[in-house]
């Protein structure tokens, strides 16, 4: 959102709504596979670029009229059947094409997940990589893999996935996924005596994503709201040195 009126039509200050909506649909289909066939409503922040600013255009009516007068438009008759026809491009056509791309990308992502065993419910196949399609299920399978110790690798991959959800969010639209993942990560770190790994990661999130007072852009705000704090020595006697008071202080911040 821009503050100065003269910036409202500056190309450098305006996002392409078609690309933004396309990105929104890609994220929706990947993070919500059960609703892959549903086209999500356009994000309000994207929609603002589609709706014209009536007040701004009304104030510029004279300039717009003068601009139009400088161009004498003439109708050009279409050629015969052999001539190439120029068709008007509609938003629905653009979106339809983008949906096809999204569908292909979703299918490729699903195929990749199945390649690593992420889509098998019968327990067969080893999961070696956490996908954005179903990160919690993939993480759980890696943690519980007793043939090969993948605990450290699983924790590292889940941390990276959470970071992806944070930085790729548009006004916090992926924060719910991130919160679900960090809850699962904390639970696993308690069970596997990996408290230091989680606590370091939580401190990093607070430092990197705990700025500002807007709940839509501050991921740590959501952690505070969900009371996701450091793992204490009461929870993990073998690996944590954090007392309850320090864990409470970790969430004791002022956020508007």
Q: Which outline best applies?
A: elongated
Whole-number mean pLDDT: 78
CATH architecture of the largest domain, please? Alpha Horseshoe
Strand content: under 5%
Structure write-up:
This protein has 256 residues and is an all-alpha fold. The protein has two domains: 1-71 and 87-115, no CATH class; 119-251, Ku, C-terminal domain (Serine Threonine Protein Phosphatase 5, Tetratricopeptide repeat, Alpha Horseshoe). 53% of the residues lie in helices and 0% in strands. It has helices at 17-31, 44-50, 54-59, 61-69, 91-115, 135-143, 151-167, 175-191, 195-209, 219-225, 244-251. Residues 118-124 have low confidence and may be disordered.
Q: Which labels suit this protein?
A:
single chain; 256 residues; mainly alpha; Serine Threonine Protein Phosphatase 5, Tetratricopeptide repeat; 2 domains
Write the SSE topology.
Elements: H1 17-31, H2 44-50, H3 54-59, H4 61-69, H5 91-115, H6 135-143, H7 151-167, H8 175-191, H9 195-209, H10 219-225, H11 244-251
Briefly characterize the structure.
This protein is mainly alpha-helical.
């Amino acid at each position: 959102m821009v503050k100065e009126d003269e910036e409202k039509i500056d190309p450098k200050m305006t996002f392409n709504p078609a690309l933004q909506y396309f990105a929104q649909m890609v994220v929706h289909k990947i993070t919500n596979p059960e609703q892959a066939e549903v086209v999500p409503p356009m994000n309000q922040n994207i929609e603002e670029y589609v709706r014209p600013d009536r007040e701004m255009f009304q104030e510029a009516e004279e300039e717009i009229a003068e601009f139009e007068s400088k161009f004498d438009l003439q109708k050009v008759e279409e050629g015969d059947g052999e001539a190439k026809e120029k068709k008007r491009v509609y938003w629905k056509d653009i979106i339809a094409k983008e949906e096809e791309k999204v569908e292909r990308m979703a299918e490729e992502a699903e195929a990749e997940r199945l390649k690593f065993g992420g889509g098998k419910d019968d327990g067969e196949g080893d999961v070696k990589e956490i996908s954005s399609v179903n990160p919690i299920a993939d993480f759980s399978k890696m943690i519980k893999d007793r043939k090969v110790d993948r605990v450290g690798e699983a924790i590292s991959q889940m941390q990276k996935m959470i970071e992806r959800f944070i930085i790729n969010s548009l006004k916090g639209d992926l924060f719910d996924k991130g919160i679900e993942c960090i809850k699962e990560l904390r639970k696993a770190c308690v069970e596997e005596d990996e408290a230091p790994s989680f606590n370091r990661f939580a401190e990093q999130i607070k430092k990197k994503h705990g700025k500002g007072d807007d709940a839509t852009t501050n991921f740590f705000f959501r952690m505070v709201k969900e009371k996701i704090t450091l793992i204490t020595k009461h929870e993990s006697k073998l690996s944590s040195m954090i007392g309850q008071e320090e864990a409470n202080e970790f969430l004791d911040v002022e956020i508007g």
